[in-house]
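Narrative summary of target 7.
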Amino acid sequence: MVSLMNREWIPFVVLFLTAGVVVGYASSYGEISRLESEISTLTTEFNNLNVAHEQLEDDYNNLNSTHNELKANCTLLQSEVLTLTTNYGNLNATYSTLLGNYSSLNSTHHELQEDYTQLEDVYELLNGSYTSLNSSYSELQMDYEEAIERIADLEQIVEYEVYDLLDEEYYQSVKDDMENASETILVAMYSMIYDPGDLDDWANDLIRELVNAKDRGVNVTVIIENRTYFGYMNDNLEAYQYLSENNVTVQLDNEDDTDHMKLVIIDDNIVYVGSHNWSESGLYYNHETSVKIVSEGIARIFTAYFETI
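Modeled conformation, tokenized:
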């Protein structure tokens, strides 16, 4: 590398060698020619070496430039590596923090899982209780609705009018209400005596009014006692015969027990109940007492009882 860097000495060296060769071989022309040939060869080689030197020098300069660039890049890479190292440290710290958080969350997850399992068991118990309570609720709802209906019935029963009818007051009151009846008349009577030959017998008036009501479209039903514990009520047969002939729905009660009621229900709203029989003595001569009750609720109760006779 030193000889190449100082190529200005090369000609002198070559001349010195050549001179030495000429002096040493002057005696021989052939030797001189050989030397000249060698000099020419050496010169050619020198020139080639000089060209190679220049090429090597260019390569050196290129390599030096590349070296400088690589050095600069290395410095830049060192800076980037330092930055990456710092970032790695930060990321590693963040990772450690996240790992700690994960461990904490994982522990919390296991606790929540256990709580969830316990809650599932509680849910099953509560669901069973709910099903049972829902069934009980449905039953209570039905009972409540029935109670509401019963309360409505009782409210109607409470909203009533009551009139005391003493002795002769009964006849005119029941007669007026039957004359005004528009839908139904129900009569259950222990003694109903029809005496068509007696023009002043109030019982005849009431019995005939049943036929009048039937003729104007009122639904009339009559039950008359026929056989009691003490024997047959033959006096009721005339009334039964008269009503039957006039197409009134009437029946004689022939059961062994005694139907002793004196009951009249008009238009599902008015109830007469008491001691008045439909006979001349019961309506005029005897001391009797009955009540008139104006109430749909009470009328329903007595109608239900009437249907069991």
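The two ends are 149 Å apart (CA to CA).
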